[in-house]
Amino acid sequence: MTSALILLPLGAALAIWLAPLDRLAVVGLALAAAVAEIALWIATVIRFDLDKSSIQFSQQASWFKDLHVSFHVGLYSYSLWLVGMTVIVMAAAIAYAVWAGRERPRAYFGLMLFLMAAVVAVFEAQDLLLFYVAWEAMLIPLYFLVGVWGGPGRAAATYKFVVYTIAGSLLMLAAIVVYGVQQGTFDMTLTKGSGSMWLFLGFAAAFAIKAPLFPFHGWLPQAYRESPPEVAAVLSGVVSKTAAYGFLRLGVIEFGGPSQDVRNVVLALAAAGLVYGSLVAFRQPDLRGILAYSSLAQMGLIVMGIYAIDLGGLNGAVLQMVNHGLISGVMFLLAGIVERRAGTGDVARLGGMARGRPILATTLLVGGMIALAVPGSTTFAGEFLILAGVFSSGWGWTAVGAVAIVLAAMYALRLISAVLHDRKGEAVTDSARDLRLPELAFVLPLLACLIALSVWPAAITSHSFGKGSERCRPLANVLKLTPGDCP
After folding, report:
1. Is the pTM of this model over 0.85?
2. CA neighbor of 46 nearest in space, from 56, 32, 34, 54
3. Total structural domains within the chain
4. What are the tens digits of pLDDT across the range 334-382?
5. Using an 8 Å Cβ cutoff, are 467 and 51 in contact?
C-alpha cells in the first residue's frame, strides 16, 4: 500500500500529461485520483496496527546496488497521520482549483498530483537518497505552480523560494552522502545514528529553510501572497510539515546526540519565530499576510514541541502538524473565496461580510475559533501538550509559548473581525454571494476533520509512537527511557 500511495497520484499525473484529454476529462481524472488516494489511505489506516511503534507496510527493492541504495518505503504511526493530512488537504486544493477554473488544466492538475506524490514519498521514504529525491521533487511542481499561475510578483517570489530551498538542499545532500558512506548504508532503518554536529547541521539547514524557522523565512511572505490560494494552502499546510517531519525523523531520532547539544539553540529560534510571527501577523494589511506570518509562528510552536524532546511534547507536535495542515487549508481557501468575492484581500477594504452571508460567517468563525485554540478544540489539545512537554526544558519556554498563544488569539480575532464584523468595506458589495455547494464541498471536509479531532485528539496523540513499552523503542536513546517509563 505504501508504494501505491505514491504511484497512484504519480500515474494520474502522467496520464493527464500524456493522454489527449479535454478539460472535463482532466478535471474528472484529477478529482478521481485525489478521492481514490484518500480511500487508499483509509484502507491503510484500517490495516495499520496503531499500537506498534515499528515500521509497517515496508516495501523495498534494490535501486543502486553498488551504493547499497534501495527504493525503501514504509510507515510509522506518526508518518501515517501526516500522509493522511497531506492527501486530504491536497484533495481540497485540487477541488478548489477546479472551482476556480485554472488555465492550462493539463499542466496544472498534473503538477498538483505530482506534488502530492512527492510529499507522500517524503513521509514514506526509508532510504536517505530516496528521501532527498522526493524532497527535491517537491520543488519542481512548486516552481511552476507559483511561477506560472501566481500573482503579479510571482517571478520574484519564485526566484527567492527556489534560491533559499536549493541552498538548504545542497547542504543536506552533502550531509547525506557523508553520513551514508560512514554508516555503510543509506537505509534509515539500518543506520545507527550519529554524533556528528556538522552532519546534523547540514540536515537542519534544509529543514529550517523549508519550515521555515526564524530567521530563515525571507522567502515566505512573497511566496504565500503570490501563489494561487490553493497552492498557498499546500505550501503552508503540507510542504512545511515535511520540514517538521525531517526535524523529528532525522534531527531527533537519527541525530539524538547533536539534537540534545543544540536543543536550547533550536528552542530559542523556534520561540523567536513564534513571538515574531504572531506580532507581525497582527500588523499585516492583508489576509494572506496574516496567514503567512501565522504559519511562521505555528511552525515555531511545532518545532518547540519536537525539541522539547519529551514524549508529551512530541505527541503534541504531531497533533499540531495535522491541525495546522487542516487549518491552513481551510483559512487559505476561504481567503481565496473572499478575494474572489471582493476583488481584494486588503483588510481595510473588507468588512461586514457576515450580513446576508450566514454560511460564510459560520464557516470562517468555526475555522477561526479552532485556530484560536479555544478549550475543547484539537488545537488546544496540541498546544497544551507542547507547552507541557517543553516545560521539562525550563518554565521560561512555556511562558514564552503561552504569551505567543495569546498574541495568536489577537491576530486570529483581527482576521475574523476584519472580514465579518467591521463596517462594510468599499470592496464588499451587496452582490457578493454567500458560500455555495461547490465551495462547501472543499471546505467542509477539512472542518469536519478538525471537529472530529477536537472530539477525539487521542486518535493521534495515543497512537503516534505506539503504546506501552512500544513507545520507548524509537525514542529510547533520545529520551533516555526504559520500558517501565512508558505509560
Report:
1. yes
2. 56
3. 1
4. 999 998 888 888 888 887 887 888 898 899 999 989 988 888 899 999 9
5. yes
